[in-house]
DNA sequence: AATCTTAACGCAAACGTTCCCGAAAACGAT
DNA sequence: ATCGTTTTCGGGAACGTTTGCGTTAAGATT
């Protein structure tokens, strides 16, 4: 029971493969009767064109690659859902790759995507990536690339992100307005642009409200809960007594949440806590976690739209669009002191 | 700056493509000097063989496909990590597909995998799947398939799962030993084998301990938190007062956790709660969630090993291995009444 | 010197398609 | 009857590889 090919149909009908090919594509230069017979037999034999052969011939595959650090992060899972939403509608298939925040893996993923003739790629950078040559060379050859969330300034292509500065500013400002006097920040890895921008927003808010910035209570963690738990323990056992924490992501905030509870402190009374992203679980914590909503699904949609546009109009190479999505403050009990 | 092919090398060196091909594969029938020159130029031109052409020729791709309902479920993310672990080491690349618990999507994914000449596939079934024809026909043609976690009895191939019955039995028994008298169960979708097996374990435990089974407090939910939250609300507002809940998965338990907290009830005092899977977040909840540990990573490893073995030895078609992994009870505060 | 090995390489088919060029009928028009 | 037009189709190259088989020239064997 081998897969039926165009040749099988041709042989059976005593016509050439070119005729079959044309008939299947409903070409005008094939007679109505022949067309009919081909279509019928193709139907009966359950013929589907071979994507690999097509790929070899045309140098494209109708699938797009997506590289994310980690699919278990619900934020990325949601972005991917958004990507699939528009890609699917446009007939593209999306192939997911994980870098595991590892530079070498990212390079391998990029190679795989290019070698397999994917039509384009969407990428959110790995924490470890400092060198962008693997993207640069492809981009210079005209390969469509769009960055999202964890973007970089070094490559001139379309990007979609949120206003990290603004979101961080609002979160910090919110804590200030709730009466917090000593607000700590647990940042992400410093080489990630989003980490720096959120840190910047935090600093600016404190500055604007004339609150002294204490470097001792600005810590850094990877974007995951277990490490954030450890870091927060360290923060809480430090010499400075904090009454508010702005975490650079929800995963970090979840770790902090556990550390605060563990230390027997109450939220928001002893410490007000706010995260970043609005992951689905945050509302289910006890107390529910305040956060900055990030339109993950929409980000995926936008990135996919930009990419597909890039694929279909390679000429538009010149102008690079940077789509900056708006964030929204989501206040829940973990930071709500004043009703 | 096109990709360099074997032809480019051949032309440059005034040899035939076959010579280049053989030289690159270090064939004995190529002279030492020629081999040297080819290797050198290939190096300099950064030649890499085209996987698509190879695929067309040899009918395999060195990729394996993985279909899961939802990558944002940390359990599946962990399984995939396990799969990647062994696949990577054996030179295979894993391509991830999501069925979104939708039958049609699953069928599409299967088609895509078969059409792209993937070497094999690993699948955890979608909730909606009742018909297995799309797997059956491929399997009959000798295509390597291994099921994991959400397996089905209808297809005779390798499978990896945990002892759902045993895990559920232990969880229920644990609640009984903690003094719970009225234990509810929130099950998963009934057409999933794992749901039925866990339900069965629950029933058996109650039976063995001579506790009456109340059908009114056996509810069913999809495997996600938001729906479980709603279902649990309904359970709590019912006429039967429960003092223990065994949830069929951690995602369900997280929803129940939120509902219990929301209702002003305390865990484990008013209600003892236990889930299934031991997702990373469960330990960070307040109070921490008891659960049944499921060796997700190991499950992925085992499934991948079975699949790769199947790929490399197509003859072993006959005997189908069912690897049943052991579960482990993880007792945390949400169910710990007796110290 | 005639024949046999062996080493070293080229030809061409094959994988499944598409598509550019013809080319053979059929048909009117002159 | 001759000549352009359509209409309808086939041949073959191309995409990038691998591989079975044929070929050539040198060296070894008798």
From TrEMBL, chains A, B:
PROSITE patterns, sorted: HTH_LACI_2
Segments forming domain HTH lacI-type: 4-58
SMART domains tied to this protein: HTH_LACI (SM00354)
InterPro entries: HTH_LacI, LacI/GalR-like_sensor, Lambda_DNA-bd_dom_sf, Peripla_BP_I
Pfam families per the UniProt record, alphabetical: LacI, Peripla_BP_3
Keyword terms of this UniProt record: DNA-binding, Transcription, Transcription regulation
The keyword DNA-binding belongs to this UniProt entry's keyword annotation: yes
Gene3D superfamilies: 3.40.50.2300, lambda repressor-like DNA-binding domains
Source species, domain of life: Bacteria
Name this protein carries in UniProt: LacI family transcriptional regulator
Protein source organism: Runella salmonicolor
